[in-house]
Automatic annotation (TrEMBL):
It holds the Pfam family NusA_N. Gene3D superfamilies: 3.30.300.20, Nucleic acid-binding proteins, NusA, N-terminal domain. It comes from Leeuwenhoekiella marinoflava. This is Transcription termination/antitermination protein NusA. The keyword Transcription regulation applies. The gene is nusA. One of its GO terms (cellular component) is cytosol. Its main location: cytoplasm.
């Protein structure tokens, strides 16, 4: 009964860790063998008998009887005199099995056993959590905000598992309160030491793809395929979709009547502007669709260098480039081609960099950020619109326009 009582005291926390008794007994054997090695130098001559049903464990030490005074290894050999105290008819050369009571190991060894057992169970628990979440990589997951830090949000799921969402994995407009439920994808799972580090992301393109699967039945059922997703989190995204069924309009099905289907996804992403386009293997048509809402006059494609020169009417240029250059950048990422925009009917233009002796470099850089890198591309813009789209003062923009006009006059 001593062993049972001790094992029960060791295993009092097993229910909290959701570990079954059979696994507990297996861990116990591993822990006891480790203790026996430290205490006796070897565990090879020990039998550990486990009875999971009773929750009992027996330890037996096997030794060979040798003549008195000839014991060389006290762990594997026993003198004839000592053996006959156990059983009076033992003879030299016979095997003696003697039960080792846990209590006989000493208080210090028992405390070490308990600590080692706790450590092993935590290790087992962490391994199971790692495997569980490794299988969930790339999948949608819900968790509750537990703690808000400067560089990360700490989340807890229903089972109390800790999930981390770093600042750079949050959409810029995200604002969380403690106790709030958050949805994202499990982006990565790593073992750091013995503890799993589970990272959630809301900025990954895969998060948007999984939202399409979750919110649009035809995508979930495989009738519509999401071919590619590119994002500037919180700002703009482009999603190329396709269907093998000619009767289905993939764009219409994803957007829904008056945007009813995609509205929930847009709201989830902090009002991220989502363009859904029909995928096609016709590269010219694909680039044309990728640059929507701009209307393209003509395209010249260089397959070797993966570049495309796009000709547009002057009034379409700003649409193709988009606010902050987002539209043209995402179109390039979606198609895999670097897209250069040219204005139709413009015979002569001057690169903005050529005015560096009159216009400061940081001002030129501000215009470049929104895709304006020539003199005429700036002169075609409205001053108020440029103030809104850049970090430049109205007076600075007016001075730049004056310098550029003088060039053409």
């Amino acid at each position: 009964m001593e062993n049972i009582a001790l094992i029960e005291s060791f295993s009092e926390f097993k229910d909290d860790k959701l570990i079954d008794r059979v696994m507990l007994m297996a861990i116990l054997e591993e822990v006891f063998r480790s203790t026996l090695k430290k205490r006796f130098g070897s565990d090879d001559n020990f039998d550990i008998i486990i009875n999971p049903d009773k929750g009992d464990l027996e330890i037996w030490r096997n030794r060979v009887v040798v003549a008195d005074g000839e014991v060389e290894d006290e762990n594997s050999e026993i003198s004839l005199e000592e053996a006959r105290r156990i059983e009076p008819d033992f003879e030299v050369g016979e095997d003696v099995s003697e039960e080792v009571k846990l209590i006989d190991l000493g208080r210090r060894s028992i405390l070490a056993l308990r600590q080692n057992l706790i450590s092993k169970i935590h290790e087992h628990d962490n391994t199971n959590i790692y495997k569980q979440f490794k299988d969930l990589e790339g999948e949608l997951y819900n968790a509750e905000v537990h703690h808000i830090r400067h560089r990360a949000i700490i989340l807890l799921d229903d089972e109390g598992n800790e999930i981390i969402m770093p600042k750079d994995k949050q959409i810029p407009s995200d604002f969380f309160r403690k106790g709030e439920n958050v949805r994202g994808i499990i982006e990565s799972v790593e073992l750091k030491g013995n503890k799993p580090a589970i990272i959630m992301s809301r900025t990954s393109p895969l998060f948007l793809e999984k939202l399409f699967e979750s919110e649009i039945p035809e995508v979930f059922d495989g009738l519509i395929t999401v071919k590619k997703v590119v994002r500037i989190p919180g700002e703009k995204a482009k999603v190329a979709v396709d269907s093998y069924d000619d009767r289905i309009d993939p764009v219409g099905a994803c957007v829904g009547m008056k945007g009813s289907r995609i509205h929930g996804i847009v709201r989830e992403l902090g009002n991220e502007n989502i363009d859904v386009i029909n995928f096609t293997n016709n590269l010219q048509l694909y680039i044309t669709r990728a640059l929507s809402p701009a209307k393209i006059t003509s395209i010249k494609i260089d397959d070797e260098n993966k570049t495309a020169e796009v000709m547009l009417k002057p009034e379409e240029v700003s649409k193709a480039i988009g606010r902050g250059g987002h539209n043209i950048r995402l179109a390039g990422q979606l198609t895999g081609y670097e897209i250069d925009v040219f204005r139709e009917g413009v015979e002569e233009d001057v690169e903005l960099s050529e005015f560096s002796d009159e216009i400061e470099d940081w001002v030129i850089a501000e215009f470049s950020k929104i895709g304006l890198d020539t003199a005429k591309s700036i002169l075609e813009q409205d001053v108020e619109d440029l103030v809104r789209r850049t970090d430049l003062e109205e007076e600075t923009i007016a001075d730049v326009m004056r310098i550029l006009r003088e060039e053409f006059e």
